[in-house]
Amino acid sequence: MQEVKNLLNYNIMAESKHQKLFTEFPPVTTEEWEAVIAKDLKGADYQKKLVWRTMEGFNVRPYYRAEDLAQIRHLGSEPGQFPYVRGVEENNNWLIRQTIKVECPAEANKQALDVLMKGADSICFKVKKEFSAEDLEKLLSGIEIKAVEINFEGCGVKAAAEHFMAKVEKAGLAPEEVRASFNIDPIGKKLTLKGRKCGADIAESGIVELIKKYDRYYRVRFVGVNGTIFNNCGSTIVQELALALSTAHEYLVRLVGAGLDIDQAARNIKFNFAVSSNYFMEIAKFRAARMLWATIVSEYNPAKKCSCKMKAHAVTSLYNATVYDPYVNMLRGTTEAMSAAIGGASSIEVLPFDTAYEAPTDFSSRIARNVQLLLKEESRFNQVADIPGGSYYIENLTQSIADCAWDLFKSIESKGGYVAAFEAGDIQKTIAETAAKRDLNIATRREILLGTNQYPNFTETADPAVTEQTVTAGSCGCCCGKESDYDALRPYRAGMAFEALRLKTDRSGKEPKAFMLTLGNLAFARARAQFSSNFFACAGIRPVDNTLFASVDEGVAAALASKAEIVVVCSSDDEYATFAPEVAEKLAGKAIVVVAGDPACKEELQTKGLKHFISVRSNVLQTLEGFQKELGI
């Protein structure tokens, strides 16, 4: 009885505390917030200072409130309900996938059994063109088909589909016991990546026959739509989504035209999306994707509402992966996996941190799997459906991404659909323009690749597995080199240009140094020395940092003693007019003199022979290429 009284007293106290808190913190209106912001801005332009214009083509405000949900059109549904913004199921228990490249079926089987015992519950086999029924038997030996999702991709995917489904039928497995997908994607793999005509190949690919023959296996999907291609070519999130939807709609139209009904066609399409480091937008992308796909399919009046559900696999972006400081890829993979999990992806694959330059090791593969195991077993992301539901910010991002992607989708459709737009060069032009902007942002460090174009590890040299081919070769489709009918898209990694620059220094046989000659105002000198150290280290030029020299003579003497090829004068703008010319005069012909900053006296310094200046406005890539040339690298 006493326990009941204590509990009642606790609840009464808790309730009174809540009432008191509400009294002490009355509601603040948007007008009041805006008044305070306007005061703090002191006349500065609100739009320029606080509103973010995204590459996706819409603005993001500095804050959102409950009233901003009033215009959100997709609110009101529950998880598992049309239009599936909140998820296609009532739970969020995604599958953990790992891809295995099949060189030897028996060896690949051994690897698959190992990873299945260590946390994976979805396997993707990448198979070669010549793939037999005997290869399949070896590959699946000891694997319980009913207990795991099995996926296939690669040149031999059609043969794999035929052999796998024959095996399933022979085993007498019930339709609900088989979860599988076959990434048959002639539009993406042949047209987009190889630039070769694929109109007839959609019929010749055998997709229609496979779907008709195995229609009762409703958890098997034969068609793959690879939005990953666009992401890895430098697209925006909106472009990846819109182009993937357009590709999928192309399949819908052609499959229905080949005699399938809309339910058969839609139910057999599986989407593969990449996940970039744009954390909140990636969460919103998956929510917007489900809504838009449901909208598209519903226009065909399917007999079953579940045909409108999107099956979306997510893989961490190869575009973001770096060769230098590769452990940073672990951090990228973690946040990217979080975005996909929170966004409601059906399955997720975290690429091992060393994927960019070598075949993943047991260690890197284990770490990649463990990222998702932690998200499930410790963070419990799989225990809550639609984690971001109701978030003012993410709900608005979802609507904005959906609106922009829908506009681009309609634009492509007005040109005759994806294939027609690609053959006309419109898709390539759209991606190329965005990729060029992103390349410039990376070169000027407006977009950061940690450890590559900003904050590099000063003492790092490239892993022995890294070659010039590693950092300059993209990840295009197979059969490259054959004659193309159209310009193909070429996937690449964002950091490749910086990596090639640094590798050139590493493998030059030289060890160039940049000496920080710090003078005058301590705060400015130290800040600019740190900036300059990071700047030059991006090209593998070793920084020699210093705290502060008492005089120009002391600094110059130390610089000469270090035998550094580059000497960076680090001071305040006001002091450069005096210090920089003196340093240049004393080091004439003995080192390249650089001024850290963009001082008002720059023109005056240039007249005195100083020609090298580095600042936040510099194109880091071009500037470092220039220094390499001067150093004879």
Description:
By secondary structure, the chain is of the alpha/beta class. It contains 25 helices and 15 strands. Strands 3-4-5-6-7-8-9-10 form an eight-stranded parallel barrel, surrounded by eight helices. The chain is globular, with a radius of gyration of 29 Å. The N and C termini lie far apart (85 Å). The relative contact order is 0.08. Mean pLDDT is 93; it is low at 476-481.
Quick take:
The protein is built from 25 helices and 15 strands. It is globular and about 85 Å long. It is of the alpha/beta class and 633 residues long.
Distance between the termini: 85 Å
Helix content: 40-55%
Which structural class do the helices and strands define? alpha/beta
| Radius of gyration, CA atoms, in whole angstroms | 29 Å
Average residue pLDDT: 93
The global form is globular
Major beta-sheet overview: 8 strands, parallel, barrel
Strand content: 5-15%
What strand order characterises the main sheet? 3-4-5-6-7-8-9-10
Oligomeric category: single chain
- Stretches where pLDDT is under 50 for at least 5 consecutive residues are 476-481
Strand segment tally: 15
Count of individual helical segments: 25
